[in-house]
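S2.1 Query sequence (LacI family transcriptional regulator)
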Amino acid sequence: MKKNLSKLFILLLALNIFLIGCTNEQDAVSSQPADEPTEQVDVINEDTNKNTSTATIPEAVNKPLKIAAIMQMSIGTFSSQYVAGVKEQVEKFGGEVQIYNSNNDLAQMATHLDTAVNQGVDGILIDHGRADALEAGVKKAIEAGIPVVVFDNDIDLPGVTKIDQDDYSLAWDSLKTLAQDIDGEGNIVYIWVGGFTPMERRNVIYEAFKTRYPAIQEIARFGTASANTALDTQTQMEAILKQYPKGEIDAVFAPWDEFAKGAVRAIEQAGRDEISVYGIDLSDEDLQIIQKENSAWKASAATDPAEVGKIQVRFLYQKIAGEPTPQIFSLDPYLVKQTDLPKQNISMDEIGDYIDGWGESNAATSAWMEQLEQQVKE
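Output structure tokens follow.
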């Protein structure tokens, strides 16, 4: 029933956009380049992004391509599973990908971007980073005819597709669950760090959340991003627990799974079973923690990190093939609650058996992709 309603909503929204476009934009539909849509689209739903116009493999992708994946950092299991998804999809298409890890150094990230452009790669993937550090390099890539697709980045340039996890929905799903579980009142700890596009977006919703639930009070806030974020978070959370004895903290909001892991470990080692943790992002390691008996981690809003990587690669190959791609694309997030999962441990590959819709995305698919994958196999 939920899926049917969702599809009906999408159809009505699409019809509305179509009618507006027919009325106001008839003269604007001219022969623009494939990667420059006639109007910027704020949100593209996964089900509307299928291109099945031809089953012939375009010449531009019918050969081994060299792809550069430039990352702001590679911390934790989310990043490792994202990289695995990127590598898997590129290899299925017969290409090769070089991963550039910038260790949270934006200047180094910009240097990696310039290196990739100068090497004349066929396409560039960017993971996180900020426009003020990377926009010049991305413009250089576009001028060189190298397509670019960014993930969780604030770059806004014509022809550059940027994808995200719909951070606003992720944050709201997790926070709303927190509020409902503590009956709309209590004391919470907020673990957060600025300087990252998805974190900034999630914080927008957190600020709205405080207005929506005035009886929920933030009593402590901290957070750092480092090579050992989970361990640093655990140490900081241990200090908070000493400052606020049993009964003074009801929940923790951790909008990054590395934060959540550290908080859970500190809470469990202190025997503070009255505190619940609500997070964002998910990995195999996170699942093991959530499924542990009496775990403090009650829910996490997430997308499949490997699927994120695969979709980003598919958009890039569509660009290389000269096919139209959206300016903005948001993946549908899912709320994974502890109570929805079985007692036995499961992996990310099995979540779809318990969370309706998980792992079923057909985003950024073209008919020729299946043929290309089969050709590479042979």
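The chain has a mean pLDDT of 87. DSSP finds eleven helices and 14 strands in the chain.
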